[in-house]
Amino acid sequence: MRTMILACVMIVAAGSVLAQNAPPTAEEAPPPSGSSTMQPGGTMQPGRTPEATRSAKAMACRKQQQAQGARGPDLQDAVQVCVAEARLDCLKQAIAAKARGPQRRSFIETCMNQTPN
């Protein structure tokens, strides 16, 4: 009985080892995010910077919190709360406009990219 259980365990272990895929080679692996990539013709294209991905309201929140003297982790927390509140306001506007699905997503994205008054 013990030999049968041991044989089953060995078969399962061998099957799981054989089922694993090898990691991609350097040519197949995608470049790490935030790094420069080589374009055809030898020109370099810089990766997206964090500033390029932030919404207008997120940048406004950051400036507002920095003006109030927040620094380090406190600044990060305050900006995160401010952005969440701005997103909630945009969601409320989208619900009031009866936007659904992809239209709502687009509405919120547009709202978040508008410069605040």
Averaged pLDDT, please? 77
Anisotropy-based shape: elongated
* Structural class label: mainly alpha
Query: Could you give the count of β-strands?
Result: 2
- Residues in helix, %: 55-70%
Q: Strand sequence of the main sheet, in spatial order?
A: 1-2
The quaternary organization reads as single chain
- Alpha plus pi helix count: 5
Strand share of the residues?
A: under 5%
Rg result: 25 Å
From the N-terminal CA to the C-terminal CA, the straight-line distance is: 77 Å
Order of helices and strands: HEEHHHH
Please describe the biggest sheet, giving its number of strands, its sense, and whether it closes into a barrel. Answer: 2 strands, antiparallel
> Uncertain segments of ≥5 residues (pLDDT<50)?
34-39, 41-45
Write the layout of secondary structure elements.
Elements: H1 2-19, E1 37-38, E2 44-45, H2 50-53, H3 56-67, H4 72-96, H5 101-112
Antiparallel strand pairs: 1-2
Helix pairs in contact: 3-4, 4-5
